[in-house]
Automatic annotation (TrEMBL):
Keywords: Lyase, Metal-binding
The name this protein goes by in its record: Hydroxymethylglutaryl-CoA lyase
Similarity annotation: Belongs to the HMG-CoA lyase family.
Gene3D superfamilies: Aldolase class I (3.20.20.70)
Swiss-Prot/TrEMBL GO biological process terms: ketone body biosynthetic process; L-leucine catabolic process
Natural source organism: Alteromonas genovensis
NCBIfam families: PRK05692.1 (NF004283)
UniProt keyword Lyase present: yes
Superkingdom to which the source organism belongs: Bacteria
Length: 299
């Protein structure tokens, strides 16, 4: 496959990025943040999750966030819904696309969602069925696709198996997550060589964390396979609570700078993106992890 001419960026900063912040970000600040993201040209924004507030208190107000944002017709605002209860809350809030999240590691699955891989897939079946009954699209996440904090390296065949199961259950796209950021370009190639035997490249997205500084080169490796859907978070927000030292998602600004330099279309305005970056960085009182943001915001 050749490098795609257009790439769809899925902005996950408002959910995956903020969910591990210890200081609660207010509903008003989340709404303002998402509204700024909506002005950048992004077409896919993950805006929250409907999970137990006991486990993820930062996302407890997602219903209020979804009803409060200025929704643009051309933008999909999605939410994570691990169970039917979460899906029902998402439906009530007017969400039109949801996501379920599994893992390629048994140990991580049990630690993260308290059940085995097979048990997690069984729990997703009624969620996906009910979502489809409400004309909602469902996206699937697979965590730990190249490494696990408990099991070490993960076999590509394990990822392929879970990815195919999620696709067969009705997920329209499978996001392959390097949750702890241990992947390298060669590992990315091995992963895609396996996954693309059971999935079409149009069914695949990549979701890299930048713990070891490998996210951009891993994305470049995926682009060479024709992957045209990339998850990222402005300012490099995020982290993994189950992996010591794991840093955040690859920064949207860094991805956009690389794609612009390659002549790949995204329709995203860098200057407007930096406005959102500056806003949320001040809200959480942290400097952006994005090299591009730090260079451009201080220049």
């Amino acid at each position: 496959m050749g490098i795609p001419q257009h790439v769809s960026i899925v902005e996950v900063g408002a959910r995956d990025g903020l969910q591990n912040e210890k200081s609660i970000v207010t509903v008003d600040d989340k709404i303002a943040f998402i509204n700024l993201l909506s002005e950048t040209g992004l077409k896919r924004i993950e805006a929250g999750s409907f999970v137990s507030p006991k486990w993820v208190p930062q996302m407890a107000d997602s219903g209020n966030v979804f009803t409060g944002i200025n929704k643009a017709n051309a933008i999909v605002y999605s939410a994570l819904t691990p169970n039917v209860k979460g899906l029902d809350a998402a439906i009530e809030a007017g969400v039109t696309e949801v996501a379920v999240f599994g893992a390629a590691s048994e140990s991580f699955s049990k630690k993260n969602i308290n059940c085995s891989i097979d048990e997690s897939l069984q729990k997703f079946e009624p969620v996906i069925e009910k979502a489809h009954a409400h004309n909602m699209r469902v996206r699937g996440y697979v965590s730990c696709v190249m490494g696990c904090p408990y099991e070490g390296e993960i076999a590509p065949k394990a990822v392929s198996k879970v990815s195919k199961q999620l696709l067969d259950m009705g997920c329209y796209e499978i996001s392959l997550g390097d949750t702890i950021g241990t992947g390298t370009p060669v590992a990315t190639q091995r992963l895609l060589d396996s996954v693309l035997t059971v999935l079409s490249v149009d069914d695949v997205a990549v979701h890299f964390h930048d713990t070891y500084g490998q996210a951009l080169v891993n994305i470049y490796a995926a682009l060479q396979y024709g992957v045209a859907s990339i998850d990222s978070a402005v300012a490099g927000l995020g982290g993994c609570p189950y992996a010591k030292g794991a840093s955040g998602n690859v920064a949207t600004e860094d991805v956009l700078y690389m794609l612009n330099g390659m002549g790949i279309e995204t329709n995203i305005d860098m200057q407007k993106l930096l406005v959102a970056t500056d806003f949320i960085s001040k809200v959480i009182n942290k400097s952006p992890a994005s090299k591009v943001a730090n260079a451009l915001l201080t220049s």
